[in-house]
Amino acid sequence: MGQPNTSTRRPRQAVGTAIAAAFVVFSSGCGMVGSSAAADRLQLEPISVSSPRLKDGAPLPSDYSCNGSAGNPPLRWSRVPDSTKSVAIVADSNARTGGEVNWVVFDIDPRTNELADNSIPVGALEGSTTGGKVGYTPPCHAQENYRFTVYALNDKVNLKKGASLDQTLKSIADKTIAWGRLTTAHIE
After folding, report:
1. Phi, psi of 143 (to 5 degrees)
2. What segment(s) does the record annotate as region Disordered (predicted)?
3. The domain spanning residue 81 has which CATH number?
4. What pTM value is reported for the model?
5. Which is nearest to 30 in space by CA: 46, 53, 6?
6. Beta bridge partners of residue 78, listed in sequence order
């Protein structure tokens, strides 16, 4: 959209390994969190998501897995609607037998269109992951697909850092006006 890049690098906090926990599951195929009606999802505008380090359909570089130390991968997005009030990012696996949410970032300034390795934009907050940790929890399951979904929202999520996964995903789902995704095939 030609919006300025307002991403500022901020060091990440250490994250632990994920443990099993209940969470709101993404609906199949659409990439939407929560339980929005199918008709509503069909009307959402697409966001273009890319990365200088990830390619859609290619393996996730091991640097961004639990075998590496790079933290979260860099992401870029474009075609965010003008009415966007904030942006959120959710990284998860779409495992056949459940899944994990590895990262939730919300209340990103809508003028921001990228984030760097191992950082979140200034002013953005991170919610809890499936394991209850705050921050990027590197994926560990080598054969899983990992999805990095960017959501344009019609309002801020307005939760505190470390908010529960259920609460955060529900708020993102309720406010989503557009979304886009980059999916990796497995871990290198």
Report:
1. -95, 5
2. 50-74
3. 3.90.280.10
4. 0.79
5. 46
6. 48
The amino acid sitting at 23 is F
What is the DSSP code string of 74-123? PEEEE---TT--EEEEEEEE--TT---EEEEEEEE-TT--EE-TT---TT
As given in the structure block, the two tokens for residue 15 are 């994250």
Contact by Cβ (8 Å): 74, 50 = no
- Does residue 24 form part of some domain? no
**Measured distance CA(145)–CA(65) in Å, rounded:** 12
Instruction: Give the pLDDT confidence score for residue 1 in this predicted structure.
Output: 40
Count CA atoms closer than 13 A to 114's CA, side-chain side.
Answer: 16
Tell me whether residue 6 is in a domain. no
Residue where the block lists tokens 């859609």: 56
Mean pLDDT split into 10-residue runs, the chain, 188 residues: 39 24 30 41 78 96 93 97 97 80 97 96 96 94 93 97 97 97 94
pLDDT at 3: 39
Number of domains within the chain: 1
List, in order, residues 6 or more apart from 6 with CB less than 8 Å away. Answer: 109, 111, 112, 121, 122
In a domain, 9, yes or no: no
